[in-house]
Write a structure and sequence with these properties.
By secondary structure, the chain is of the alpha+beta class. Helices cover 34% and strands 27% of the residues. The chain has 4 domains: 408 residues, tRNA-splicing ligase RtcB (Alpha-Beta Complex); 134 residues, Hedgehog/Intein (Hint) domain (Endonuclease - Pi-scei, Chain A, domain 1), CATH 2.170.16; 264 residues, Homing endonucleases (Endonuclease I-creI); 85 residues, no CATH class. The chain is built from 29 helices and 43 strands.
Length: 965
């Protein structure tokens, strides 16, 4: 620890903090670079992301101080540790195992611009404990993912949190799993001696010291000595596999090595990209129109097509491929076999070789009728004199597929494949992947095709389709069994039909099940969609993705670590188990209405507030703004809102920072964050956010209360919300930069969740600009909702009521600000992080609005739905001990899972109504999660800050009506 850690709490409060990682997180904060004074924890503190919630810390730019998103407010949304993350080379890893390999691997992700698959470096790995619950989401194709409720899942409506998903919604899934990644060995495949032998076997001599020059080139590109562990070997495995099919190697006049590749233009571009990754320069793709005549057993064919190809003129690469066992010259006229090193390679690398070869040579997924697939077929032609070699090669392919558990037919000679070629008569052989449903899905999902996007897409969609078809067949089989059993027990056929008939188990099927003997499983229903219909209706883009309907969602208890990763791409998603997977504050509004009068109309008032101010998870506001207007709002704060007709200049004077943080820059915010923010302007959200109508029950400091404009017995309104999805996305997007910055600037992190960047760096500057946009969004959000609250009171209590509802104050909870404080006897400008804490400046500070400067800043402390809230005032003790900070609420004492298991939402509402508190919420479970008993004793929290001399109690506020998300 670089500084001391200090906790401001009574013994009772401290006891509740010791149940989780709160103290350890505070200690970690005290270890960050450039921290000054002390690391502070407020009495409502509890475990958070990186920083404990209720944490306050100041960092000195001149001493290498940092900015950390964790110190402002951020949650990681995680997956179960067994989740399979698909990587670049078609291998997967369990997400929990990425910790030891982070920074080396590239994960598959979806480019949302065209719904295609791509790869990006995994920048950082995160894990945390989850002690509440996890969601098991299963689709109709049987793909299942286990995620925390906040983890976004890609749907037709964009990314949605798992907790908000409903049965019947569609998610994006990929019908390809790959095989598990295993670490390759350091065994040398090709050394200089082996390469020299291959080089001379094709060149015949070392004329002009070509060998030495070639060796220098290969050493520069890191390809010699070539080991299994070489990161470029996977590309060589794919390229070699493709050359075995639609490629060729030749050495012109026994001198210059040239490799040609033939295929579709977009697929050739993928090969060109991999050649470049090896360190060689491919030619452009050439196109030429060619006329062909082919004589077969059936008939002669003549056709014209555009041939696409490119070449790599490189003796080094050509010789290296030969050294790896790749044939050169005319393949039909020579013996060759599967390279021995492929047989010893890890399974995922064998897949690359086979999939590239199949991309060139194996038939594409296709149906022989509407529902059933042809067996994927591999053919081979050789001169008749090389017949045994053809059998040996095809048998080797069978054996390799056997390593994946894939069954194949015997190797068969096909007389129709024979042709008369330039070198003589050839013989043809073929083998097939057996077309049983289980075997087909295993082939499509584990091996599939490389370097042929159309075949890969077809395989992914075919895998999903076969899964769906088999589920229908399984259902029909169960219905048949039930029907026979019911009939045997005396049930009438008509009753059986009525009970069991369905869209795919119609009366005719059940009737046949009763009267005919059946030894085979039933066929799929005739009205089940064809494969062509499935492709037309469910395919998503050209990358093999498909829309997959959610069949079950189960929220289950969970107590273990959960994990997440960040990739180096603005799309920020990845494929997990086949599925494509803020500033907050509070303001207090005074009224001239007696609480007794308001209470008489509480039910219609709560109902109308619920209608007029949208709330709930993913809620959308009734205010529609353009992207340009959003940028103006997050730049100018409530100045924009006031000019748009919301609120008054008096409100601005009573808002922290005047409702606008200078230095906000929309260019530092991603389009994704702006897109999330557009529809949520003027919405409460969910969780612990609320609108609460309260009674000023007690006044402790009458003179201060009078200055703040609150009177005993009157009604006040407390509004708690933040920057919604906009702010969360700003944090989410910045995390990638901060993780990279932590490594770039060699910052030792006691916990990876405390990723950060030195204050005077581009990364910190960008984050602060984006964070200020989120702060201004939140100011506007609360300001707009306050306007609607006033309008609601006008409707209920008469026009003009809202004109007598002044804002007491608006204070931020999660924020980082540059402020001047006295540290070790010197006045310094530091960056103060307040996470789940509120500013509590004492009298005299210029930051306090002029109307309150003589008495100090208002501090607003929400309780829970059934307990008191408080209005406090900042004191000098806060300036001396907590960087002018105080608590921000009651703080959770119980996890949401425990709360749901302890209370029922309807029971909570009923109990509160019995105490005269009307509550309205979008979901019953939310009321259970937010039950008063799930929070700490707010009276004890407030007593802690009073006794510590941080803040003084001005008034106690009692709830009368609550609107929750």
């Amino acid at each position: 620890m670089r500084v001391a850690a200090r906790i401001f709490a009574t013994d009772k409060m401290i006891a509740t903090m010791g149940k989780d990682r709160t103290f350890g997180q505070l200690r970690n904060v005290a270890s960050l670079p450039g921290i000054v004074g002390k690391a502070c924890l407020m009495p409502d503190g509890h475990e958070g992301y990186g920083f404990p919630i209720g944490g306050v810390a100041a960092f000195d730019p001149e001493q290498g101080g940092v900015v950390s998103p964790g110190g402002v407010g951020y949650d990681i949304n995680c997956l179960d540790g067994e989740t399979k993350v698909l990587l670049e080379h078609g291998a997967y890893v369990r997400i929990k195992d990425i910790e030891t390999d982070c920074g080396k691997s590239e994960a598959k992700f979806v480019d949302f611009k065209n719904s295609s698959l791509s790869e990006a470096k995994i920048l950082y790995f995160m894990k945390r404990e989850e002690k509440e619950s996890i969601y098991h989401i299963t689709t109709k194709t049987g793909r299942c993912i286990r995620v925390t409720g906040d983890h976004p899942v890609y749907t037709k409506e964009g990314m949605k949190k798992a907790a908000t998903l409903k049965i019947g919604e569609t998610t994006a899934s990929l019908g390809f799993e790959g095989v598990q990644y295993t670490e390759p060995s350091d065994e040398i495949l090709v050394d200089e001696k082996a390469f020299e032998a291959a080089f001379l076997s094709k060149r015949g001599s070392n004329e002009g010291h070509a060998l030495e020059q070639t060796l220098v080139q290969l050493n520069k590109t890191g390809l010699l000595p070539l080991k299994f562990s070489n990161q470029k070997l996977p590309y060589l495995a794919k390229i070699a596999g493709y050359v075995f099919g639609d490629g060729s190697i030749s050495f012109l006049k026994k001198r210059k090595g040239v490799i040609w590749f033939y295929g579709k233009e977009n697929d050739l571009e993928s090969i060109r990209a991999d050649v470049s990754k090896l360190g060689f320069t491919p030619s452009r793709v050439y196109k030429r129109t060619r006329a062909h005549k082919i004589k077969t057993h059936y008939k002669d064919y003549e056709f014209v097509h555009v041939e696409c190809s490119f070449k790599v003129s490189s003796t080094a690469l050509a010789s290296l491929l030969v050294a790896l066992g790749t044939p050169s010259g005319l393949k039909t006229a020579q013996e060759y076999s599967i390279p021995k090193w492929i047989r010893r390679a890890p399974l995922w690398m064998k897949r690359l070789f086979l999939a590239a070869f199949f991309g060139a040579e194996m038939s594409a997924p296709a149906t022989l009728n509407k529902y059933n697939f042809y067996a994927p077929t591999l053919g081979m032609n050789k001169l008749e004199t090389l017949e045994n070699n053809a059998i040996e090669f095809m048998t080797s392919i069978k054996e390799l597929l056997g390593d994946f558990g894939i069954e194949t037919s015997p190797v068969m000679r096909v007389k129709e494949y024979a042709v008369e070629g330039k070198k003589g008569k050839t013989c043809g052989y073929r083998m097939q992947v057996l077309a049983t449903p289980e075997n087909l899905t295993k082939f499509f999902e584990t091996v599939s095709y490389e370097y042929h996007s159309e075949k890969f897409k077809g395989a992914c969609l075919a895998a999903n389709y076969v899964r769906l078809k088999e589920k229908i067949k399984e259902k029909r089989l169960k219905v048949r069994g039930k029907a026979i059993a019911l009939y045997a027990n005396g049930a009438r056929p008509k009753d059986i039909y009525d009970q069991l008939s369905d869209i795919y188990t119609q009366e005719s099927f059940i009737r046949k099940s009763l009267w005919a003997k059946h030894t085979d499983e039933p066929r799929v229903a005739f009205n089940f969609m064809s494969f062509a219909e499935y492709k037309n209706g469910c395919a998503l883009g050209e990358g093999g993705l498909a829309w997959d309907e959610i069949e079950t969602i189960e929220k289950a208890p969970f107590d273990d670590f959960v994990y997440d990763i960040t990739i180096n791409d603005e799309n920020h998603n990845f494929v997990a188990d086949g599925i494509v997977v803020s500033n907050c504050g509070v303001r207090l509004i005074a009224t001239e209405l007696p609480a007794s009068e308001v209470r008489t109309k509480m039910r219609p008032l709560v109902d109308l507030l619920f209608k007029n101010v949208p709330s709930g998870v993913g809620s959308k506001g009734k205010l529609r703004v353009t992207p340009r207007e959003l940028e103006e709002a997050v730049t100018r704060g409530i100045d924009w809102a006031i000019e748009a007709g919301y609120g008054t200049r008096q409100d601005k004077e009573r808002t922290e920072e005047g409702g606008r943080m200078e230095g906000a820059d929309p260019s530092a915010v991603t389009e994704k964050a702006k897109k999330r923010g557009l529809p949520q302007f003027g919405t409460v959200g969910a969780g612990n956010h609320f609108i609460e109508i309260q009674e000023v029950q007690e006044i402790m400091l009458p003179e201060v209360a009078e200055k703040f404009g609150v009177k005993k017995g009157n009604a006040v309104i407390m509004l708690h919300c933040g920057s919604r999805g906009f702010g969360h996305q700003v944090c989410d997007d910045s995390l990638r930069d901060m993780l990279a910055a932590s490594r770039k600037y060699n910052i030792p992190l006691p916990d990876p969740e405390l990723c950060c960047a030195p204050i005077n760096t581009p990364e910190a500057d960008k984050y602060l600009k984006g964070m200020r946009c989120a702060v201004n969004y939140a100011f506007c959000n609360r300001h707009i909702m306050m306007h609607w609250v006033r309008q609601t009171f006008d409707e209920i209590f008469g026009k003009g009521t809202g004109d007598s509802m002044p804002l007491v104050y608006d204070v931020c909870h999660n924020i980082a600000k540059f402020e001047e404080h006295d540290i070790d006897g010197q006045r310094k400008k530091v960056c103060v992080h307040r996470k789940g804490a509120t500013r509590a400046f004492a009298a005299g500070r210029i930051e306090v609005p002029a109307i309150y400067r003589e008495i100090g800043q208002p501090v607003i402390i929400p309780g829970s739905m059934g307990t008191s809230s408080y209005l406090l005032v900042g004191k000098q003790g806060a300036m001396e001990n907590t960087f002018g900070s105080s608590c921000h609420g009651a703080g959770r004492a119980m996890s949401r899972k425990q709360a749901i298991h302890t209370w029922r939402g309807n029971a909570v509402a009923g109990e509160l109504e019995g105490r005269g508190i009307i509550v309205k919420s979008t979901e019953s479970d939310l009321l259970a999660e937010e039950a008063p008993g799930a929070y700490k004793d707010v009276d004890e929290v407030v007593l802690s800050v009073k006794e510590a001399g941080i803040s003084d109690i001005v008034a106690q506020l009692k709830p009368m009506g609550v609107v929750k998300g």
